[in-house]
């Protein structure tokens, strides 16, 4: 059960970083309709909020499953929950890099 709580904490930290970065980018890009993101361009709302919202939605199923797993399965799921959040944060920050440099 401790692994479930640690995994939750990692997701909370990652999601708060993503939402804070999106909020900062939203304040910097007021009035712009489209923003660069990774190798393309997209609508401002989608670019700023798609990855954080999708990450939150993706975090729900493993959080629920972590409460019922025991033994090796719990450790494997914890590994997934420990690796995925920082990778998603890096993806999102890399995507917003062009937005912050404007």
3D structure, described in words:
The chain is mainly α and 102 residues long. The chain has one domain (2-100). Helices cover 77% and strands 8% of the residues. The protein is built from three helices and two strands, in the order αββαα. The protein has a two-stranded antiparallel ribbon with strand order 1-2. α1 packs antiparallel against α2 (44-66), α1 (2-28) runs parallel beside α3 (72-100) and α2 (44-66) runs antiparallel to α3. It is elongated and about 50 Å long. The termini are far apart.
Please estimate the helix content: over 70%
What's the helix count? 3
Main sheet properties:
2 strands, antiparallel
- Bulk shape: elongated
Separation of the first and last Cα atoms: 45 Å
SSE ordering: HEEHH
Number of domains: 1
Q: What is the C-alpha radius of gyration, as a whole number of Å?
A: 16 Å
Spatial order of strands in the largest sheet: 1-2
Weakly predicted, low-confidence segments:
none
Give a count of the beta strands, DSSP E runs of length 2 or more: 2
Average pLDDT: 91
- The SS-based structural class is mainly alpha
- What portion of the residues fall into strands of 2 or more residues? 5-15%
Layout of secondary structure:
Elements: H1 2-28, E1 34-37, E2 40-43, H2 44-66, H3 72-100
What are the defining features of this structure?
single chain; mainly alpha; 102 residues
Give a brief outline of the structure:
This protein has helices at 2-28, 44-66, 72-100, and strands at 34-37, 40-43. The protein is mainly α.
């Amino acid at each position: 059960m401790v692994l479930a709580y640690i995994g939750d904490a990692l997701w909370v930290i990652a999601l708060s970083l993503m939402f804070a970065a999106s909020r900062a980018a939203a304040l910097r890009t007021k009035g712009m309709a489209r923003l660069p993101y990774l190798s393309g361009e997209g609508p401002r709302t989608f670019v700023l909020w798609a990855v954080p919202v999708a990450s939150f939605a993706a975090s729900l199923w493993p959080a629920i499953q972590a409460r019922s797993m025991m033994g090796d399965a719990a450790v494997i799921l914890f590994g997934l929950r420990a690796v995925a959040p920082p990778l998603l944060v890096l993806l999102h920050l890399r995507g917003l890099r062009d937005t912050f440099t404007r």
